[in-house]
Amino acid sequence: MRYEARLSGSGGQGLILIGIILAEAVGIYDGKNVVQTQSYGPEARGGASKSEVIISDETIYYPKATRLDLLLCMNQKSCDEYYLDLKKDGILIVDSSLVHQVPTNQVYQIPFTHLAKEELGKAFVANIIAIGAIAEISKVVKESSLTEAVLKRVPPWSAELNKKALSIGIEQGKKAAASLKLSRI
Amino acid sequence: MRYEARLSGSGGQGLILIGIILAEAVGIYDGKNVVQTQSYGPEARGGASKSEVIISDETIYYPKATRLDLLLCMNQKSCDEYYLDLKKDGILIVDSSLVHQVPTNQVYQIPFTHLAKEELGKAFVANIIAIGAIAEISKVVKESSLTEAVLKRVPPWSAELNKKALSIGIEQGKKAAASLKLSRI
Q1: A51: Cβ–Cβ under 8 A, 6 or more apart, which residues?
Q2: Which of A40, A151, A152 to mutate to test binding with chain B, by most B CBs within 10 Å of its CB?
Q3: What are the pLDDT digits (tens) for A17-56?
Q4: In this predicted model, what pLDDT tens digit does every residue of A120-145 receive, in sequence order?
Q5: Domain positions in chain B
Q6: How near does any CA of chain B get to the CA of A157, in Å?
Q7: ipTM
């Protein structure tokens, strides 16, 4: 088993943080081997950000993601740029408040940033809503492990806010899955 | 040019944060190619933590550190375990408040945790003192880039504290270098 996830968007959206949270949830609490990576090159100067998580039952010799099982896109540019790296049956999840042109109809569209602002009054928890949705849709991490990992990495004053963001993400993941299923009939 | 650094110690010492800060300083502000990595395996369950930064002028195809140019050890266990991965002329820096047995006399010994507590009253900035010392000793990153990257990644209320921690690290790096030079005579 090897599972490759890429979390992409703009700098400042907290994609590195949710990469670390996902890696710690699966690596420390679920007991798998995980490598979590950020790469900086010319594109980083343009504010683009991507964070990768590779999960395996075995030792990971090659820690770069090349054929993605899961791709999260928090802006249009990352969706345009990375969609081709997604496997045929890979999971594409986009922030539909920021990504308006999707390359396929096999896509989970959730307005993470809009929900973070409207439901919680804090745009910066859009990333935590997204990681909740990822857990629900992909089943790659246990919800309890994810909650533990989130609470370990966020400031104590924001624990309740982040727990709410996770629940919204999980609930929205369910909704998006149901609506994608319907559209397939 | 390829430069491999590993920052190691216990979970909770902020080694992932300083890995990201070093990577962003060099990758975004100094304009090099950088890959920054965390690996989680059986050892992560014991609370061990390591964060790696690979820097290159060219595209990085293999993002794992195998022959270290620089090793930071913030506890005894990481020093015992990783010293053999250091190149012959590689730089070894240890937190001498926590690492009491060193494997060589070619070592920069700085009491990061002690300094953080005594000089700044906050043990948690030991990691920022360490990254300051790393910059001074290794010259792998510009001081101005490092300061920018630190200020981007820490909460605004702690900007002054972190700037002081960086200066202490730089000053201590100079001292440790001078004392290592003396011991070589």
Answers
A1: A6, A7, A8, A15, A16, A18, A19, A20, A36, A37, A38
A2: A40
A3: 999 999 999 999 988 999 999 999 777 777 778 999 999 9
A4: 999 999 999 999 999 999 999 999 99
A5: 2-184
A6: 13
A7: 0.91
